[in-house]
Amino acid sequence: MCHKMGFCYCSPICYNGRTLSQLRGSEGTTVMSEQFKALQGFKDILPDEQPYWRYIEHIAAEVAELYGYRRIETPLLEETTVFRRTSGEGTDIVDKEMYSFNDRADKEGKSLNLSLRPEGTAGVVRAYLEHGMFKMAQPVKLYYLSAPMFRHEKPQAGRYREHHQFGCEALGESDPAVDAEMIALLLQVYTRLGLKQIRVKLNSIGDSNCRPLYIETLKAYYAPLLSECCDDCKVRYYKNPLRLLDCKEAQDQPKIAAAPKIPDHLCEPCREHFATVQRFLQAYQVPFSLDPLIVRGLDYYTRTVFEFTSDIDRLALNGGGRYDGLAELLGGAATPGIGFGTGIERIVQELKRQGITPAPEAQKRVFIAYFDRTLEMQTIAVEITAELRHAGLKTEMSYGRRSAKAQMKQANNSGAHYAVILKSEELAEGFLTVKNLQAEGMDSESKQVKIKRTDLLDYINNQHISIVTALCTE
Fold this sequence. Notes:
Layout: E1 14-15, E2 18-19, H1 20-23, H2 50-66, E3 70-71, E4 77-79, H3 80-87, H4 92-97, E5 100-102, E6 113-116, H5 121-130, E7 140-150, E8 162-171, H6 176-193, E9 198-204, H7 211-222, H8 231-239, H9 253-258, H10 268-283, E10 289-290, E11 302-310, E12 316-322, H11 326-329, E13 337-343, H12 344-353, E14 365-370, H13 375-390, E15 394-397, H14 404-413, E16 418-422, H15 424-427, E17 431-436, H16 444-447, E18 448-452, H17 456-473
Parallel strand pairs: 3-7, 9-10, 14-15, 14-16
Antiparallel strand pairs: 1-2, 4-6, 5-6, 7-8, 8-13, 9-11, 11-12, 12-13, 16-17, 17-18
Helix pairs in contact: 2-6, 6-10
């Protein structure tokens, strides 16, 4: 017996050394020792939730492509080194949150350490280099949509260990106009979704010329205070000092508030770049505020960094920024870049908090009910269902041996616009009955009409045109 996962691979009917017959109850039903559930921090996206996702995906793709971005998809798995080099030692992602494991060894006994991607940028930059996109006209503008990301962090509202991101990356151009474009793009997505009270926060964290000097200033400020800092900050002081400003512990907030601010220590090129980004954001009519404490949690960021937050709950919707040195860390030439990632789950949460519901589908729905439970009648029901589906109508039919009352209850609960009712005596004469399930203020006789079977498709299409016209004039 193979004890991996408790299953025996030598027998399809063995579980933990017991056969199915041993697991059966007194009446022959299989008794399992537990009910499996989704893992902590992982979430099923159920059918009722899908309209939100389709709504977000449609608008995000439309706006991204309006700005000239093209879709890319990268693998879920990358060599762990890709993220260690780019995200940086001392970050929570690398030290605490990545799902990493050794791959199976090859014939020579060598194996790679792999990780489920915790963020999207590193994989996109790796693909940009691997496929020679640096030879194309620059910038190369790419987006990914509903891409799964994995981080072993504490689950909380809107944050899961598996979450899905919409992100954009622009590679090969350092012009501050690209920074402004990226921020304006995302704000346009949120605006198109109908979200209100969205705040843009902006900062610059300098580059390799001015940031090292600022970090030394920051460390000098923290040195006499280190014994009073939280344990994580004591590690950050040595591994990633900039992230001292990103600490969330209450005991460290007064120290952060009094710490030297990086915008005061920018070199002249960084200061000029930051000022131009703000100028272009004003041209895009993007309202923003400056926040010197935005530093981002990943090492690869340079110059412009930004966050979008909701005034409703003060939580971040997303973050992003410029990463002009990232390609070099992955073995490429110096390549400027900027990008963002925003969680789909977090956007869904915000839509619900603001009472925004995706519009119902305009496509009509038909439910086929048949009261004579013979095989011949069911065959006719299948034929009509197939005919309507082939014509592009979303159609459901009754299954099993439900009563007429049960079928009509199912039709009313299905959300269908029309119920097509099949009766043997009407079909013998070439007729059937159509009932309008959505009509209000009409008597029962007006809601239900008898038509020729051959006229069914034209009748439903003409009725739907009338409904759509009425909706458009309201």
